[in-house]
Amino acid sequence: MTASFDDLVAEGDAVDLAGWDFSWFAGRAIEERPPWRYAQMLSERMGTAAAGLDLQTGGGEVLAEIASPPPRLVATESWEPNLEVARARLASLGGEVVHAPDDGPLPFADASFDLITARLPVTTPWPEVARVLAPGGTFLSQQVGNGTNIELTRAMMGDHITPISRVPEDAAAQARAAGLEVVDLRTARCRVEFYDVGAVVHFLRKVIWTVPDFTSAAYREQLRAVHRTIQRDGMFVSHSARFLIEARRPR
């Protein structure tokens, strides 16, 4: 028997938000991945680093998949509930997880790491990244791009909504202003499909920048409209925007 609108919304509201694990969405939503395969790049780079730092690691889900950890592996996270999740997940790699605010400062000495990574950071503290990178060291990051999931944002908040500006060229300019050399900058637009409104609710609770003040109670009628779209079309389609930036500290 097909779950009702109310049951699906309640299910989406009940899912634990700790960590950055999206496995709950299996069979309920799918997101196309960017062509550069960030997780593979992360694993390869960490495998050749002497000291690696992963910023805003969430529950350590992506970092935990690296094939071979560097001799020193550290991750930062700002949200308290994620700290113990990440520590447990990264223990087998010998990873240390420390609390640090997203916008810095970073609690490390100058030139501490030859590799710094960040997947979907809330913000990038470019001066701090430049400070703790060793000369010749690399910063590699996959970030949220301009107008990501604007279709879903507008379905909730209205067609008048203007995307929050997260322009790759702005990130590159900030990296250069911090004294780094930008060696790679790529963009991708990826299809996202939601197959039930419960997945939409959980996504909006988890990815909070999509609808910053989201609660299922406040947006119930908009959710009902999305539910009708899914019933009619089999899915609600949105598009995520991503960009890859690689920057290096000069020797």
TrEMBL record:
Keywords associated with the record: Methyltransferase, Transferase
> Where along the sequence do coiled-coil regions lie?
none
This chain belongs to the protein called Methyltransferase domain-containing protein
UniProt keyword Acetylation, yes or no: no
- List the Gene Ontology MF annotations in alphabetical order: S-adenosylmethionine-dependent methyltransferase activity
Q: One biological-process term from Gene Ontology?
A: methylation
- The chain positions of domain Methyltransferase type read 53-140
Q: Which Pfam families does the record cross-reference, listed alphabetically?
A: Methyltransf_11
The record's section on InterPro entries has: 23S_rRNA_MeTrnsfrase_RlmA, Methyltransf_11, SAM-dependent_MTases_sf
Species, as recorded: Ruania alba
